[in-house]
């Protein structure tokens, strides 16, 4: 008899059971990936923790995935993901890299004791919203910060809760803990205090921590694997390595939610295809002019939208063809222009 109760600390619920058990192949046992290690992984099973082998035909497995194991302890089946945090590969190719799967809450961690990078927070919000999880922006190291820009960050995070916490001083952790739901993933740059916060939420020193370099204020990678742990109050937590590059990958919906203030303004633009550049009757530009929309926010919106479109064009042949046609037209125009001026 399968003891599913052993999976409960790792996120197994009645809803998960109802969704996945009918989809399991015969003679397969459900398990959740706790940590990936190339062709092998640590998994939580109804029989307890185990080491499993991954077959070559199942690629892209990641921490948080629910899978089906055979009797030999080999992963034979990937069950459908309910959510996934996905970024564009750091290789520069438009390849999706899944950071964590089946996540319900994303903690976007930024150190409050330094320069709070609003653009980076907006970028991580787009990833979080696109994942189908609920983002929470956490300004860490609040005890070491002279001024915590809570209102500024709240203004760029519509729909998301913004909190200031200090794991070291145990400030704000009770409020944060009350907001956690299901599987929680921590994302952010190195030095943001993710592992320290993870340890505080887990109630024990599970993940290694390092001090931030004083010379440049940057952190060092202390977490090198994505690892899932059971939270003492229920639910699970996934700590992730620091993100140096956070490329967008097919994140149109995430951008729309991140910049919902700008999206709502576009409904009042004179032209339905307004690019918010110099068109007459642009409600977005009017909001910048009257000071209700910061120019920095519009610039960030343009930058991320352009990046997302470019990444999508790499994988979408139709969009790629359209972009190529635009550049061909521009080149032809430039050539005609130079010929008209007597240049060869």
Description:
Zn(2+) binds at residues 269, 274, 276, 282. Residues 101-244 form the EngC GTPase domain. InterPro entries: G_CP_dom, P-loop_NTPase, Ribosome_biogen_GTPase_RsgA, RsgA_GTPase_dom. The chain has 344 residues and is of the alpha/beta class. The protein has three domains: 4-78, Nucleic acid-binding proteins (OB fold (Dihydrolipoamide Acetyltransferase, E2P), Beta Barrel), CATH 2.40.50; 84-239, 3-Layer(aba) Sandwich (Rossmann fold); 252-340, Orthogonal Bundle (Ribonucleotide Reductase Protein R1, domain 1), CATH 1.10.40. 31% of the residues lie in helices and 21% in strands. The chain has ten helices and 13 strands. The strands form three sheets. Strands 10-9-8-11-13-12 form a six-stranded mixed sheet, sandwiched between helices. A five-stranded mixed barrel has the order 1-2-3-5-4.
Short description:
The protein is of the alpha/beta class and 344 residues long. Helices cover 31% and strands 21% of the residues.
> What is the total number of structural domains?
3
Number of strands: 13
State the CATH topology of the largest domain. Answer: Rossmann fold
| Classification by helices and strands | alpha/beta
User: Could you list the spans in which at least 5 consecutive residues all have pLDDT below 50?
Assistant: 213-217
Distance between the termini: 82 Å
- Biggest sheet statistics: 6 strands, mixed
Q: What do we call the CATH homologous superfamily of the largest domain?
A: P-loop containing nucleotide triphosphate hydrolases
What is the element string, with H for helices and E for strands? HEEEEEEEEHEHEHEHEEHHHHH
Count of alpha/pi helices: 10
Overall mean pLDDT score? 88
Family: Belongs to the TRAFAC class YlqF/YawG GTPase family. RsgA subfamily.
Subunit structure: Monomer. Associates with 30S ribosomal subunit, binds 16S rRNA.
InterPro entries: G_CP_dom, P-loop_NTPase, Ribosome_biogen_GTPase_RsgA, RsgA_GTPase_dom
Subcellular location: Cytoplasm
């Amino acid at each position: 008899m399968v003891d599913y109760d052993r999976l409960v600390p790792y996120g197994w619920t009645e809803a998960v059971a109802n969704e996945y058990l009918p989809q399991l192949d015969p003679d397969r046992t459900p398990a959740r990936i706790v940590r990936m290690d190339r062709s092998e992984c640590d998994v939580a099973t109804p029989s307890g923790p185990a080491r499993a082998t991954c077959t070559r035909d199942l690629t892209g497995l990641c921490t948080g995935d629910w899978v089906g194991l055979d009797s030999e302890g080999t992963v034979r089946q990937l069950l459908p993901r309910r959510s996934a945090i996905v970024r564009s590969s750091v290789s520069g190719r438009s390849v999706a890299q899944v950071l964590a799967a089946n996540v319900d809450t994303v903690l976007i961690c930024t150190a409050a004791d330094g320069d709070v990078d609003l653009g980076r927070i907006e970028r991580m919000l787009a990833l979080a919203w696109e994942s189908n999880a609920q983002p929470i922006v956490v300004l860490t190291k609040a005890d070491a910060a002279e001024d915590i820009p809570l209102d500024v960050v709240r203004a760029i995070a519509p729909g998301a809760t913004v909190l200031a916490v200090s794991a070291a001083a145990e400030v704000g952790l009770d409020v944060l803990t009350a907001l956690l739901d299901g599987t929680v993933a921590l994302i952010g740059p190195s030095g943001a205090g993710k592992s320290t916060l993870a340890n505080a939420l887990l109630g024990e020193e599970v993940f290694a921590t390092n001090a931030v370099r004083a010379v440049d204020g940057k952190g060092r990678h202390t977490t090198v694997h994505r690892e899932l742990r059971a939270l003492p109050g229920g639910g699970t937590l996934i700590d992730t390595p620091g993100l140096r590059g956070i490329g967008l990958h097919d994140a149109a919906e995430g951008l729309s939610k991140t910049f919902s203030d700008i999206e709502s303004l576009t409904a009042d633009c004179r032209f339905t295809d307004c690019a918010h550049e110099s068109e007459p009757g642009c409600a977005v530009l009017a909001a910048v002019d009257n000071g209700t929309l910061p120019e920095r926010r519009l610039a960030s919106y343009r930058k991320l939208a352009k990046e997302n479109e470019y990444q999508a064009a790499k994988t979408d042949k139709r969009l790629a063809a359209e972009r190529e046609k635009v550049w061909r037209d521009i080149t032809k125009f430039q050539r005609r222009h130079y010929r008209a001026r007597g240049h060869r």
